[in-house]
Amino acid sequence: MAVIKVSTSIFSAIKTIERAMTKATRGDEIHLASGQYKESIQFHENVSITGKNMRDTIIEGLLIVPKHTTVTFEQLTIVPTAQLFIEGRAVFKNCVFKGAQTSVILSLSNGEVELEECTIEQAKDVGMALFNGSEATIKNCLFKENGKSHLLLESSHLTIEDSELTDAVHSMWLKDEATIKSVGNHIHHHSGTQIVVQEQSAWIDSSSTISNGKGNGIYATGESNVTLIGSYLHQQLLPQIWMQESYLTATNCTIEAGEESGIMLRERASAEIANCMISNHKIANVQATKESRLNIEGSQLHSCEGVGVQIREKSIANFLDTTFAEHVLSQLFITEQSITSLKNCVFKDGEQVGILLEKGGNCTIVGSSFVNHRNTAITVIEGELTTLDCEMAYNDGNGILAVTNAKVHVDNCRMYANEMPHIAGKTNAFITVQQSELYEGKSLYVIGQSQLTMSDSKIYNSDGVQIEISDETEAKLARCTISNGKTNGFKVLRNSNLELDNCQISNHTLPQIVLNDSSLTMKNSELLDGERNGLIVENNSEAYIHDSFITKHVFPQIWIDLASSVELKDTQITEGTESDIYVQNKSSLHASNCIIRNDRFQYNVQAVNYSNITLEDTLVENSFGKIFYSENNSVITHSLDEVSD
């Protein structure tokens, strides 16, 4: 191996690189003295060319590395007058490329390039272009001020590490099944999208920073793949990651402070996101639309000025062990027949609602909590919600609000300390509650031709009415306990219907059940220990009570008023402080096979103002005084005896 020295000095025997190449054989080294070498060279031997120093050793011209040839360049400034064309193998170390005279600085066609400690700048269009199965390795390099893109790949492969790319329209553009492996790079301040991935290409990154772009940080389309591990994206003007008909995998990444969205999925795009933090965007932290697929696990989503996560247009999303916090609008928005599932997630400190579900959306939530929202924890409008093993507390609005044909199923959940009813439904809402606890706040408010079904649940310690139904609503409760409310247990208003089966209602400060222009069916239930009435039936209401037990109320245990009626069968009414039954104002009661017993107040059965009471096969006892009292055209019939005034 020989060393051939080249110098532009008038005393040098070899003044040009081309002259040195005529003397060189395979493996020789050509050392260039400081100076400017204006020449174009096509290499035919494997050689290395080394300048005295990078700043003062300048090659200006055209360089061609043909197939089956390897050329190494070190410590040079290269000013190409046309693109440097490489079909063989070229190695550049400590070189500067200044491309002001050419559209493309380095062009590879089935070639191979290694760049280390190099600067590639000022190309009119592209810093380096790879075509037709080319390969490149780049380490510790700087790409800057290249016009359209620093790197352009078609059907080629590149690895770039610990490099900086800045000040172009695009940083990297991949087409036609190209692949880039990126490690520890800094990509910033591009006027368009920083990374463009198209046509089944793949961009794989580890620990890079992508920042301050005026377009997207990453844009992928055409069934391409983007893989991010420990990447950091921030401050793009458009969505930081835009996936369209493509696939994203992100692990241990931070995506924050974008002017629009953090991640946008469109047109059947897919994303797998794990252990990431996505925050501080102005429109949404994550959006999935047009039949896209999203899975997020172990991540933190917070502090968006708009929506936390938006799922729309028949998209599907799954969340596991993920926290949603401090979003200005809804923390999760599901709409337009989209489907979402959540497990072991936390929703907290939202400025509005935790979840907004609408327009045929479907959401299933397991083992999650919703706390400290300034509005409702979950709002459902024309959607379907299932919650299992969840907690909803300390929200300024409802725990769940179901509106306009919404369907809500609540199973084994706890709701407490919400400022508004834990569950509210209106306008044809369908609500099912099983094995749940609702306490420290008004529990249920269901109106507007809605339906409530509740079983094996506990409702207690409310400051307001514990359950209120109104406006042609139907409620069915089985095996439930409703206790210790500071006002009523139930209010049933305006042509609504309540069914109680194997329930216990106890210890309310105001009448335990109030029925107004509505109906009640109560079977195998207990109504006990009320500070006022047990049951008030008024204003054309009807009640049917069967196999039940009513006891220990301070005011009349059953009060029937204003053209209302009650049927009692196989029921016991005992230990009232005042009357057991009080019927007035054109109302009626019929009792059969009942026991009515009072030892504290005379007249435990009373009828006044055109009212009627009929007792069949019923035992009426009063150890304190008289049993019956009637006045003003009222009638009490007991077996064959009639008492009237």
Element layout with pairings:
Blueprint: E1 3-6, H1 17-23, E2 29-32, E3 35-38, E4 41-42, E5 47-51, E6 57-61, E7 63-65, E8 70-80, E9 84-86, E10 89-98, E11 104-109, E12 112-116, E13 119-121, E14 126-131, E15 135-139, E16 142-144, E17 149-154, E18 157-161, E19 164-166, E20 170-175, E21 179-183, E22 186-188, E23 195-197, E24 202-206, E25 209-211, E26 218-221, E27 225-229, E28 232-234, E29 241-244, E30 247-251, E31 254-256, E32 261-266, E33 270-274, E34 277-279, E35 284-288, E36 293-297, E37 300-302, E38 307-311, E39 316-320, E40 323-325, E41 332-334, E42 339-343, E43 346-348, E44 355-358, E45 362-366, E46 369-371, E47 378-381, E48 384-388, E49 391-393, E50 400-403, E51 407-411, E52 414-416, E53 423-426, E54 430-434, E55 437-439, E56 444-447, E57 451-455, E58 458-460, E59 467-470, E60 474-478, E61 481-483, E62 490-493, E63 497-501, E64 504-506, E65 513-516, E66 519-523, E67 526-530, E68 535-538, E69 542-546, E70 549-553, E71 558-561, E72 565-569, E73 572-574, E74 581-584, E75 588-592, E76 595-598, E77 605-608, E78 612-616, E79 619-622, ...
Parallel strand pairs: 1-2, 2-5, 3-6, 4-7, 5-8, 6-8, 7-9, 8-10, 9-11, 10-12, 10-13, 11-14, 12-15, 13-16, 14-17, 15-18, 16-19, 17-20, 18-21, 19-22, 20-23, 21-24, 22-25, 23-26, 24-27, 25-28, 26-29, 27-30, 28-31, 29-32, 30-33, 31-34, 32-35, 33-36, 34-37, 35-38, 36-39, 37-40, 38-41, 39-42, ...
Antiparallel strand pairs: 81-82
